[in-house]
Design goal:
- By secondary structure, this protein is of the alpha+beta class.
- Helix content is 40%, strand content 18%.
- It is built from nine helices and seven strands; from the N terminus they run E-E-H-H-H-H-H-H-E-E-H-E-H-E-E-H.
- A five-stranded mixed sheet has the order 4-3-5-6-7. The protein has a two-stranded antiparallel sheet with strand order 1-2.
- Helix 2 packs across helix 3.
- It is globular and about 60 Å long.
- The chain starts with a strand and ends in a 6-residue tail after the last helix.
């Protein structure tokens, strides 16, 4: 019988301590992996009592919710993250930042933004994003605004425009994923877009589009509705 180990947030089998994500990457391509699985590859292993899957959850949460200048300290505070693993994660984050800066892309049409947000299509819950852009429509930053079912409280203009104001953005693109696989907008999606569009005109930061993504498709309010023409 397969031995089980216990951890604070659940019970895991021996086989789950070292999930074979490398084989999945080789077989299906690195783009098939979730953010968590990419972190698992970087970490390689967990430690006694903390499987790599659990450790990667903590690391990913730190990456997503910690300011860049505080990330090293936050990673080091995670149980199981010694200097070696912390350095690997910091190096990966910095490399991604440098490559993104070198390959800065001017957004000319909705499909141009998809490669920068496609990883969120793999999430099991809705993630609402605000992408800030310069006056020439080059990406400045991809900001995670909220997680969970889209509703009016999660997309209040004060939450949406806090980062664009800090980033000194000239324009923004909104995006969120539909885990259901259906890219068509809901009534709440339409209402939220209209509300934020009205606010953008008052604040003076242009809303270029709101894009819904799934694993295989996307929906652009700019291309497929007349909301921006009103």
């Amino acid at each position: 019988m397969m031995k089980k180990i216990t951890y604070e947030s659940g019970t895991f089998t021996d086989a789950e301590k070292k999930p074979e994500v490398r084989e999945q990457a080789i077989k299906n391509g690195i783009f098939s992996l979730t953010d968590k699985e990419l972190v698992m590859i970087l970490l390689g292993t967990g430690i006694k009592g903390i499987p790599v899957g659990i450790l990667s959850d903590d690391v990913l949460e730190a990456i997503e919710n910690t300011a860049q200048n505080e990330l090293q300290a936050q990673l080091s505070s995670i149980a199981g993250m010694g200097p070696g693993k912390t350095t690997i994660i910091l190096a990966a984050v910095e490399l991604g930042r440098r490559l993104a800066a070198k390959n800065s892309l001017r957004i000319k049409k909705p499909s141009d933004i998809i490669p920068f947000i496609q990883s969120y299509a793999l999430k099991q819950e809705e993630h609402f994003l605000c992408i800030t852009l310069s006056s020439s429509h080059e990406i400045k930053k991809v900001n995670l605004i909220s997680k969970g079912i889209l509703n009016k409280s999660l997309v209040h203009p004060r939450e949406i425009f806090a980062d664009p104001i800090t980033d000194r953005a000239a324009a923004i693109i909104l995006a969120h994923n539909h885990p259901s696989g259906d890219a068509l907008p809901s009534e709440q999606d339409v209402e939220a877009t209209q509300k934020i569009l009205e606010a953008s005109r008052i604040i003076g930061i242009q809303l270029l589009d709101h894009i819904i993504i799934t694993k295989t498709d996307y929906f652009s309010f700019r291309e497929q509705t007349d909301i921006f023409d009103k």
